[in-house]
Amino acid sequence: MTKSLSSFQNQNIPKINQRIDDLLDQTVFDNELKSMMAYSIHAGGKRLRPLLLLAIIETVQNILTKDDFTVAAALEAIHTYSLIHDDLPAMDNDDLRRGNPTSHKKYGEAHAILTGDALLTVAFQWLSSLDGDSDKTVKLVTELSAAAGPSGMVIGQVWDIEGVTKQYSMDKLQQLHENKTGRLLKFTAQAANVLTNVSKQLADELVGFTTNFGLAYQIFDDIADVTETTAQLGKTAHKDLAQNKNTYPNLEGLQQAKLDLDNVIKHMNENLQRMSEIDSTLDLGLLRGFIQYLQLDGEK
């Protein structure tokens, strides 16, 4: 029976949340700081990144371990820190995140900065607590720091800020998206490849799939900023256009952006086809669910 992403979400989001809470209890001893960290990391996010990580592991080995959930929690902590800092007045200056006041609106700018700092650093503390062998831990720390740092998410954010005053080529915009949004999504495959014993052929296709998903997800998000309301988004709508940001719809128009999204989704389907040729026993239903997530005529 083909696995359903919706069932997988219902089963594993509570486990992700519980692992986050357990880790916060084990590593954060000031209750006020813990509350500020929990406020943002439990603010109603879709858990897309940890779910993609766990879905890949489930697909290739059919079992999830405590270490897998610890890596998933660390990944969500990094993502949440980036959102807190992205919302700050010095960055995007957003009042809403997931329909709730942003961290700096609720706790003040200084506390929001420190909360983001705490989530960034505790993620690596969590990774260092894995039960598995130390070589795998080092590989995971190396991959996540590269994905989140100056060769990944941070440089993407720098380019995003600088793009307010200049117009990028489409190649540059794709590089921006692949770093700012795509690198943490690509990390899901890199981490799964470390945590499991997949062949190099299959590992390469998983990295390709998540790289394409990262780009597709950002194009999808760019389109949503133009077509959806603040209530639908849970954050301020049409802000990219108002700030003259480099996005797919802003640079090439909404219709072409939709065509580009379709093209990247085509590449994702090709990744899945090659995976099935490498191992015909794989149930790829969970990964197909992430493609369905990107359908513009469906529910987010």
In DSSP terms, counting alpha (H) and pi (I) runs of 4 or more, how many helices? 16
Radius of gyration: 19 Å
* Shape assignment: globular
Number of strands: 2
What is the CATH superfamily classification? Farnesyl Diphosphate Synthase
Mean pLDDT: 93
Give the fraction of residues assigned to helices. over 70%
Specify the CATH class.
Mainly Alpha
The CATH architecture designation is: Orthogonal Bundle
The biggest beta sheet is recorded as: 2 strands, antiparallel
Strand order of the largest sheet: 1-2
- The first-to-last residue Cα distance is 24 Å
Task: Give the amount of beta strand, in percent.
Answer: under 5%
Query: What's the structural domain tally?
Result: 1
**Order of helices and strands, N to C?**
HHHHEEHHHHHHHHHHHH
Segments where pLDDT lies below 50 for 5+ residues? none
CATH topology call: Farnesyl Diphosphate Synthase
Structural class: mainly alpha
Describe the structure.
The protein is mainly α. It has a single domain, classed as Orthogonal Bundle (Farnesyl Diphosphate Synthase), CATH 1.10.600.10. The protein is built from 16 helices and 2 strands. It has helices spanning 5-27, 31-41, 48-61, 66-86, 103-107, 109-127, 134-148, 153-162, 170-180, 182-195, 200-227, 230-233, 239-242, 248-252, 254-278, 285-293; strands at 96-97, 100-101. Strands 1-2 form a two-stranded antiparallel sheet. Strand 1 and strand 2 (100-101) form a beta hairpin. Helix 4 runs antiparallel to helix 6 (109-127) and helix 4 (66-86) packs antiparallel against helix 10. The longest helix is centred in the C-terminal third of the chain and has 28 residues, at 200-227. The chain is globular. The two termini are 24 Å apart. The model has no long low-confidence stretch (mean pLDDT 93).
